[in-house]
Amino acid sequence: MEGKEDLKLLGMVVSPFAIRVRLALSMKGVSYEYIQEDLSNKSDLLLSSNPVHKKVPVLIHNGKPVCESQVIVQYVDELFAGPAILPTDPYERATARFWAAFVDEKLHPAWTGIVREAKTEDERAEKVKETHAAIMQMEEAFAKVSEGKAFFGGDSIGYLDIVLGCCLFWFEAFRRIFGIEIISSSEAPLLAAWAERFGETAEAKKVVPEVDRAVQYVAAAAAAAAAAAK
């Protein structure tokens, strides 16, 4: 089926959710047109393709849009031949989906809330605490799901690796900008070692941006907010 499909991906360089989809497409070896979106000036294509959330990523397949990163990754896995992204065993697949939902519903709001929601030092400390609590649950999940292998997906990356791995460059950006270590090797040694291995995979090296891009994005956003407040 590869090579016969018209695929466009609407994304943003520093969006972990767009990177999630790019990782999946990279795993499958699929060619696609990448279209960079400016979320401060959203294109008509984005607004018409995702009228509900008006967010990236959106995968447009033969003119038909597919929205929401986890949905897109599963769609890509079902559509294209190549290495399986989701586990083939039904129980393992359900487990991967459960923890993927945990990443997006619990971990993501916690770590992004450190900057987006916390207004005081106490509020920031509470969000950091929530983040570390979620990371410790992922540490336990990795011990169970990986069964002693290198990745959540076994000997190579899979669905849950992609879902969490797309955030790792942002975790490093937070360490550089705010001095906050999200995955600590002393507290979450299994996850810390996994993160290093994930970063060395061919898929990650191909699509995950340099940490400096996230640092620059935060600096630009802070400057714009300061200018608007004057």
TrEMBL record:
<dbReference type="GO" id="GO:0005829">
    <property type="term" value="C:cytosol"/>
</dbReference>
<feature type="domain" description="GST N-terminal">
    <location>
        <begin position="5"/>
        <end position="84"/>
    </location>
</feature>
<dbReference type="InterPro" id="IPR045074">
    <property type="entry name" value="GST_C_Tau"/>
</dbReference>
<dbReference type="InterPro" id="IPR040079">
    <property type="entry name" value="Glutathione_S-Trfase"/>
</dbReference>
<dbReference type="InterPro" id="IPR045073">
    <property type="entry name" value="Omega/Tau-like"/>
</dbReference>
<keyword id="KW-0808">Transferase</keyword>
<dbReference type="GO" id="GO:0009407">
    <property type="term" value="P:toxin catabolic process"/>
</dbReference>
<comment type="function">
    <text>Is involved in the conjugation of reduced glutathione to a wide number of exogenous and endogenous hydrophobic electrophiles.</text>
</comment>
<dbReference type="InterPro" id="IPR010987">
    <property type="entry name" value="Glutathione-S-Trfase_C-like"/>
</dbReference>
<dbReference type="Pfam" id="PF13410">
    <property type="entry name" value="GST_C_2"/>
</dbReference>
<keyword id="KW-0963">Cytoplasm</keyword>
<dbReference type="InterPro" id="IPR036282">
    <property type="entry name" value="Glutathione-S-Trfase_C_sf"/>
</dbReference>
<feature type="domain" description="GST C-terminal">
    <location>
        <begin position="89"/>
        <end position="218"/>
    </location>
</feature>
<dbReference type="GO" id="GO:0004364">
    <property type="term" value="F:glutathione transferase activity"/>
</dbReference>
<dbReference type="InterPro" id="IPR004045">
    <property type="entry name" value="Glutathione_S-Trfase_N"/>
</dbReference>
<comment type="similarity">
    <text>Belongs to the GST superfamily. Tau family.</text>
</comment>
<protein>
    <recommendedName>
        <fullName>Glutathione S-transferase</fullName>
        <ecNumber>2.5.1.18</ecNumber>
    </recommendedName>
</protein>
<dbReference type="Pfam" id="PF02798">
    <property type="entry name" value="GST_N"/>
</dbReference>
<dbReference type="InterPro" id="IPR036249">
    <property type="entry name" value="Thioredoxin-like_sf"/>
</dbReference>
